[in-house]
Amino acid sequence: MGKKLHFMFGNKALTYVSTEGEPIIKAFEMEQNGQVKKKAKKLNQRLQHLSRQ
């Protein structure tokens, strides 16, 4: 019973506090999304080119 109480109340949840601001995080996400879209577009163009041959 003592261990159960220890784990219920003794262990604190770990939290993460971001050092970046929200605008920086949003800009990073937009950049990542743009890179994914560019890669997908190149892949689609490549597939269309190969299917024509």
Description:
This protein has 53 residues and is mostly helical. It contains 2 helices and no strands.
Quickly list its features:
mainly alpha; 2 helices; about 0% strand; elongated
Set out the fold topology.
Elements: H1 2-10, H2 22-52
**From the helix content, strand content and strand pairing, which structural class follows?**
mainly alpha
Rounded to the nearest angstrom, the radius of gyration is 24 Å
Give a quick account of the main beta sheet: strands, pairing sense, barrel closure.
Answer: none
Quick one: how many beta strands?
0
Q: Spans of 5+ residues with little confidence (pLDDT < 50)?
A: none
User: How many separate helices?
Assistant: 2
Secondary-structure element order, as H and E? HH
The span between the termini is 72 Å
Average predicted local confidence, pLDDT: 79
Quick structural gist:
This protein is an all-alpha fold. It has two helices and no strands.
